[in-house]
């Protein structure tokens, strides 16, 4: 069955079987993870004060990265890399430490994942890594390290046009897709991707008959079409394709993915996209009769955009044609997520109640998220602070801490999420404190909401939510933005 996983692709891929995938396409985030922020902005239509830079700190060299960097030589040796290559990696990383710590953090994050991806590929498999010129030169060196430079097949330049405010240099209008095979035999169905003669001769940016083509080549391509060169200028970005646009800033066009999948896999093969975003790869794979696995860390991508794309656009049924995994559906599932990955448990809980995770990646309490809402007469969005306690022991001290955070932070309300419902005595204590905190009155309305509230995971799973003015950004507003045109096969 096709699978869509919610979670960190590293953890999920580590649990996948070796040599089980024929083709990997990845389009990872870089530089402030624009994708997260864009999702958030698009959904609300307004900037969210402390989430705009959410996850930027992912590329700040922190203890987690340092640990990964220290451990990397061991992983590289286990993955079969020779001593010289491992030593090269070590020296390179040390050189970057002072000059480009952000790049070092990014490369170590990517390295951990690429090593696992290599293990997942079948011997005849291929990998396409989509990036932009900000880091493509570094990534290429890293891909050479992991996959071997003898397995480098192409650097594909996907070129497009579009408006640009740049006046001091050439507008940056291309992406880079690095194509590597796993070994010395790989699938490449050149006949599947031939560009018909007519289309090619009208293609923007040249590429028509003439130039260095000899007679035989001319004859072949007037009869059979032509294999696209390593630069592609015939695929429009999604912004130009109204029928595809999902409001997902980093969305790629289905045609791009269809070319890659048609060339580098066969019907019935398995395609993996570990950064699947709004599921472009999954749609292309489905249309080309490939099996697919998608992973994304953003629950919005998984639950809403991807499911809507797969359901409404591809007419796939969850449970029959594909399964969504990693999203807890029971208290046991939630506990399991907490045990496996405390940070992601917090993230899941915050997003489940329509909140947004806060910028810092912590698993130690504090403010884990905010839920935004409009208040009559206020220009800026107002918020409820969210704190998640996944562990067993919730005490009166936690309630007091929540109360004082509410007073300290610029927020009108505070909500605590606990794994289990509170025992009676604790509940009484909490209600006493909530009574002291009082209610949020809505100007011009008789509605009011307790400033301090609590919800347990079983309540959330039953659909219960914090009592607040309508939360901004999640429920509903995205749905309206999804405008699909006709199916395009
Ligand atoms: C550039 S976007 C991919 C866009 C996608 N190609 C499309 O057409 O929609 C990168 C995606 O990677 C996801 N992501 C970032 N870090 C991740 C991780 N560690 N595990 C899984 N997904 C991750 C983000 O949520 C985002 O949706």
Describe this protein's structure.
By secondary structure, this protein is an alpha/beta fold. The chain has helices at 9-14, 34-44, 63-78, 83-99, 101-120, 136-147, 197-201, 215-224, 254-264, 280-287, 299-313, 331-340, 342-352, 396-408, 424-437, 457-461, 477-481, and strands spanning 2-6, 21-26, 121-131, 152-159, 174-181, 231-232, 270-273, 291-296, 322-325, 356-357, 369-373, 382-389, 413-418, 439-441, 448-450, 452-456. The strands form three sheets. The protein has a nine-stranded mixed sheet with strand order 6-4-5-3-2-7-8-1-9, with helices on both faces. A five-stranded mixed sheet has the order 10-11-12-13-16, sandwiched between helices. The protein has a two-stranded antiparallel sheet with strand order 14-15. Helix 3 runs antiparallel to helix 4 (83-99). 39% of the residues are buried. S-adenosylmethionine binds next to helix 2 and strand 8.
